[in-house]
Structure formats: structure tokens, C-alpha cells
Amino acid sequence: MSELLDRLLRAGTASDAEIAVLVKEEGMDAVLAALVEEVLFRASLPNNPDPVDIALDITHYAETRRVVFRSVGGEPVTRVDGDASREICRALGMSLTHLVRRVYGRFDQRRTGDFSDVFLPSRPDDLSRLPGLVDSTSRASGALMTGLTIPRHELGALCSSSGSDKWASFHWYTGHYEREFAPYRDEPVRILEIGIGGFDGDLGGGSLRMWKRYFHRAQVFGIDLFDKSALDEPRQTALVCDQSDPAALAALAQEHGPFDIVIDDGSHENEHVRISFDALFPYVRPGGLYVIEDMQTAYIPRMGGTEGPSAGADTSIGLIKRLVDDLHYHEHSPASVPTATQQDVVGVRAYRNIAFVEKGTNGEVGIPPWMDDAAWAALGALPPTD
Domain Methyltransferase MycE N-terminal: where (predicted)? Predict the structure, then answer.
């Protein structure tokens, strides 16, 4: 299923021919089942007074399939066997190719005119039911269409509804995340978050749920010291790993990476932050981001921090300071063989208690190291010396 999902996430922006190859190799039923599961995940909670069944008729060349969605007010939309339908109140028609694009395409893709619609295909025996049927069908359709549409949730609201503490709690991170994550939002990214959360027996997983909704084409992985595989579902996987174990982190990244985004929201112990960065940054894709949260612990001695106004070199903020130096290694004197981070860090953006490290090729060369006063004078930048 994971391999099929990986292919589907990329197929949303692929050509008709590439989608046809995917369907041929994976089978129409498997592809449709994966898409329907995502539609059900995204669909909003309906508020229709009366139960409503809506049919979605899918075509792929000569093949056809009917999927029936049942909407009951106050309960999640479900899929039912077509034969078990009480009464089809609306019949939507769409090609499988268009469905792939509606679910896993880009937000800015044109999607008008890609489906047919028949409202109340059969005349009700009792016309006194008609006003209620129209109202309930319209409401149920709205809930289903949220599942058939590329989502554009505001991250702060998603954070609150998902149970994450990244906003309106101890932190106000979501504004920074929206700014930094905007270029990745419509891409088939792989995200790893260190720390799944949960206290007093609670499984946690609020942030995983938030990222899954925010990045509609993402595969989201979380790691924790404890088994939280009960949170597993399509596009969301909980793994057991100790962030203080560099070998375990590397093995996990080799199996599930490389990643476009890594977020450290783990123990916040300064030693663990540095171990995790050193182990996982090599498995961030070029153009990706490594995020470190809760850097206030750099000033808390019991968590490996430094008391006073300047965080020490072994803290998370010390790490960020070093990465700023690494970003400018071309200007170092004397020159030395560049380290991995000197070669690969192209951006360091720090906000209150959170930092984003961008990976790429640090190939910009500044002022040549041989430039001395005589060379500057030749350029007219310095007055001649006696």
C-alpha cells in the first residue's frame, strides 16, 4: 500500500498517459480504494438532517465503478456497498484520471468541468419529502465535496483541531511554519517528526494529524520511544526510535527517507538535539528543511543548557550559531577542507524558540581569499598605501 500511495501522490500532477500506466500496473480497484480512503479522511463532518446516499460513478476507458457515500448528520462520511443504498440522492460522474488530480493534484490546477452531476435522479414517491431531501442532499454534498477538493486549511486552526501544541499553547509556531512551508505545500513531500507526544496514556499524534491534513500529498512519519503504531493510517506512520541513538536514526532514515522536512520536537535535551541533527541532516533532500523547536532549553542547565545570556556551543542555539558560521565558510581564513554542513547548509532562519535550516549546495564564492589591500586599491576601493 505504501508503494501505491507513493506513486499516487506523484500521479496527481502527471500526464494522462502516466496515470494510465499506474492504473494498469496497480489495478483500477486498488487505485480507486486508495483514493476513496483519502476522500473519506478529508470530508468534513456533515450536518444534513436526513441520511443521504451519494453515488460517485468512475470511468477509466471501458471500465466503470460505482462508489456510494453515506452521509448522516454528525457522523463521518462512510462508504457503503452500492446494493445497500437506500436511495441515491445525487449521482456524480468522473473519470479516474480526474479523480486522481482532484485528490492529489496541485491547488492551482484547473478543475472546472471535470465531473457530471445529477441531483435527485429519481422522483420521490412522497413529494412532501422533497424540501427535506433537497436540503439534506445539498448539505451532504458539501461535506463530500470537501473530500473531493484540494484542501487549504489555515495552520493555526488545524493545529487547534488536531490537538497539537504548536499554536495558542506554549508556542506560536504556525505563522513561521506557514511562511517556511509554503513552497512545499502542494508537493509529494516526505516528513519526519521527532516526538509524537502524548501523556498519561494518551497516544498523542496531534502534529502528525495536522501535517497530514496540511500537506495533502505528504507521507508523514513520526518517531517516539514508545510503540504508537495504533496511530498508523494511510499517509501517516508511527515508528519506534530513540533520538539519542545515532545508528538507529540513520537506519530509520535509510529505510524511510530521504525526507523533505525533518522536525525535531522530541526531548529538547540539547545533547539529543545535536545527535539527531548530525544523524538525520544527511538524509534531508537538497532543497529541504530541518526544523528545531523549543530552543529555549539552550538556557536551561538541567536540560544541557547554559545559564546566562549566551547559550554555549553544545546547545541547540550553539548549533545554530555554528551553522551560520558554516554558511560563510568561504570567508574563513585560513581555508580548510569544508565539512558536510559547510557544503550543504544554504540558509539558517531563526525565530523565537524555533529555527529552520535549509539544505542545498553552498557553492556561492564571495571575495577571493587573496584579496589584499593592494588588490582593493587596484579596484579603487581603498586609497593607495605609501
Answer: 6-111
pLDDT score, position 366: 73
- Quick one: CATH architecture of 155-359? 3-Layer(aba) Sandwich (3.40)
Tally of CB atoms within 10 A around 17? 9
Omega before residue 309 within 30° of 0, cis:
no
* Average pLDDT of the segment spanning 161-170: 87
Q: Are 210 and 164 in contact (CB under 8 A)?
A: yes
Q: How far apart are CA 41 and CA 360, in angstroms?
A: 34
Q: Range(s) for CATH 3.40.50.150 in the chain?
A: 155-359
> What does residue 236 show for φ and ψ, rounded to 5 degrees?
-140, 120
Angstrom distance (rounded) from CA 106 to CA 253: 27
Q: Does domain 2-147 have CATH number 3.30.1050.30?
A: yes
245-249, 282-286, 329-333: least confident range: 329-333
Among the listed residues 60, 268, 272, 332, the single catalytic one is: 268
Give the three-class secondary structure for 266. Answer: coil
Verify whether residue 98 is a known catalytic residue.
no
Q: What percent of the chain has pLDDT over 70?
A: 97
List the Cα angle 326/331/335 in 5-degree steps.
85
Distance CA 66, CA 258 (A): 37
Nearest to residue 136, comparing CAs of 120, 150, 149?
120
Is residue 35 exposed (0-12), middle (13-18) or buried (19+ Cβ within 10 Å)? Answer: buried
Q: CATH 3.30.1050.30: which residues of the chain? A: 2-147
pTM (2 decimals)?
0.91
Band (pLDDT 50/70/90 cuts) for residue 83 is: confident
